[in-house]
């Protein structure tokens, strides 16, 4: 098994700038590996999978993602 550390990310400053998530106060903002890990455990996708309008709903479910893709 590969050990993954979420403590250090050489790209965090850059990713924090690029992260489209508008959910205020999330400690995973700009920490993509931590963000994916968190949402994957909940059968969800991170904010960057959604358009700006979809992202604002804070619905990160895979069902919502598929529903949006089908439109
Ligand atoms: S997508 Fe989720 S985990 Fe990622 S920054 Fe936004 S609220 Fe945090």
UniProtKB/TrEMBL annotation:
Q: What is this protein called?
A: Cytosolic protein
Source organism per UniProt:
Desulfovibrio gilichinskyi
Q: What is the lineage of its organism?
A: Bacteria, Pseudomonadati, Thermodesulfobacteriota, Desulfovibrionia, Desulfovibrionales
């Amino acid at each position: 098994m590969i050990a993954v550390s979420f403590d250090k990310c050489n790209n965090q400053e850059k990713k924090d700038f690029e992260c489209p998530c508008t959910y205020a106060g999330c400690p995973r903002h700009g920490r993509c590996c931590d963000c994916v890990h968190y949402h994957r455990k909940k059968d969800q996708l991170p904010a960057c999978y959604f358009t700006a309008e979809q992202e604002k709903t804070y619905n990160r479910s895979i069902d919502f993602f598929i529903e949006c893709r089908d439109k």
